[in-house]
Write a sequence for this structure.
């Protein structure tokens, strides 16, 4: 196992930066993860923030995390090409040790007003995902990876997700961000243990771990059922720390552990103190398990042939549009179910007939929240 760096997700947010500053002044933050595509609404990035990014970049301790690429969109869209242009520009300005993206496709009329949701695991989506990862790697010229999902429609999806990730990443020697709060969501929502979940994932591909907090949602479709949501707006649960303690030794190529929390959850002095305490607890777990041997895999880019023709599937794209509209427009759970059953997704590779009602309800809530703007 390589040396593991204690890291924070650090973006241009006053509350988040206020929480991080004492840790940085104490030289405790060994690396930062920057969501480089979330500054689309910022006219001018402050010089001091650029200096912060540059400082970590020069030490090769800056990692990039994308939000809006929509890796599984069935149609290659102008926004995706613009995203790659932006990544190329940013990669020339800063040195990323690696670049990652979220799994799924974006709903909404544009990428900044959509939710990342799951896709069917088919040969078509595998081909599209591999194509997009190759284009990412060809653009940034560094290791690339994907984050495991917090959300799934069914237990079957949960069980297949790790193998699908492995197949996706193999052609680019890619890696996984193992988000342990996402594990926590899956464990609660589908009644699984950590041991059951870890057996489903290619842990040899884990280069980065995320820890964060979230929130609980009460299902109206299934009274009495609670759903764990990956909302990043609360402190890290004790269970996630116990997952981290177990996971470090299971991931021979682990290099970064990143604490995430949105600034919306750091508006008070107490919440910022709690964030720093979470970081210190994370850091201690890392130091207790750390050594400086070489990693099993550095995930360096391998020679690849970039396809001349972008992979697309119009049928998949139209189904994605249809699902997005159903989730964003529905006024009730019954309306969502009626619309799904009357849609082209019925009796298809999406397997909507097996979807958990509480998770369909959750998907609609996620889509409708993101419709009003990403936070």
């Amino acid at each position: 196992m390589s040396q593991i760096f204690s890291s924070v997700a650090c973006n241009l947010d006053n509350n988040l930066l206020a929480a991080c500053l004492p840790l940085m002044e104490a030289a405790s933050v060994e690396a930062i993860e920057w969501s480089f595509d979330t500054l689309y609404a910022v006219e001018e990035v402050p010089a001091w923030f650029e200096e912060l990014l540059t400082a970590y970049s020069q030490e090769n301790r800056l990692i990039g995390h994308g939000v809006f690429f929509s890796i599984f969109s069935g149609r290659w869209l102008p926004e995706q090409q613009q995203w790659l242009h932006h990544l190329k520009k940013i990669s020339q300005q800063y040195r990323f040790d690696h670049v990652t993206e979220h799994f799924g496709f974006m709903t909404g009329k544009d990428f900044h007003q959509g939710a990342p949701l799951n896709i069917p695991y088919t040969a078509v989506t595998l081909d599209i995902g591999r194509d997009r990862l190759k284009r990412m790697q060809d653009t940034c010229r560094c290791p690339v990876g994907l984050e495991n999902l917090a959300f799934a429609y069914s237990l079957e999806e949960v069980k297949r997700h790790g193998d699908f990730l492995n197949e996706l990443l193999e052609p680019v020697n890619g890696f996984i961000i193992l988000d342990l709060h996402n594990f926590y969501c899956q464990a609660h929502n589908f009644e699984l243990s950590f041991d059951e979940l870890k057996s489903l994932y290619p842990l040899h591909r884990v280069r980065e771990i995320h820890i964060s907090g979230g929130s609980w949602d009460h299902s109206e479709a299934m009274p009495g059922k609670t759903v764990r949501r990956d909302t990043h707006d609360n402190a890290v649960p004790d269970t996630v720390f116990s997952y981290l303690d177990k996971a470090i030794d299971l991931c021979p190529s682990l290099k970064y552990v990143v604490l995430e929390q949105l600034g919306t959850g750091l508006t008070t002095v107490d919440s910022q103190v709690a964030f720093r305490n979470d970081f210190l607890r994370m850091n201690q777990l890392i130091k207790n398990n750390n050594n400086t041997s070489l990693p099993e895999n550095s995930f360096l880019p391998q020679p690849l042939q970039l396809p001349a023709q972008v992979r697309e599937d119009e049928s998949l794209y139209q189904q994605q549009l249809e699902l997005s509209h159903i989730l964003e427009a529905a006024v009730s759970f019954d309306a969502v179910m009626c619309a799904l059953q009357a849609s082209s997704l019925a009796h298809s590779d999406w397997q909507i007939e097996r979807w958990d009602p509480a998770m369909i309800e959750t998907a609609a809530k996620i889509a409708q929240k993101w419709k009003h703007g990403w936070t």
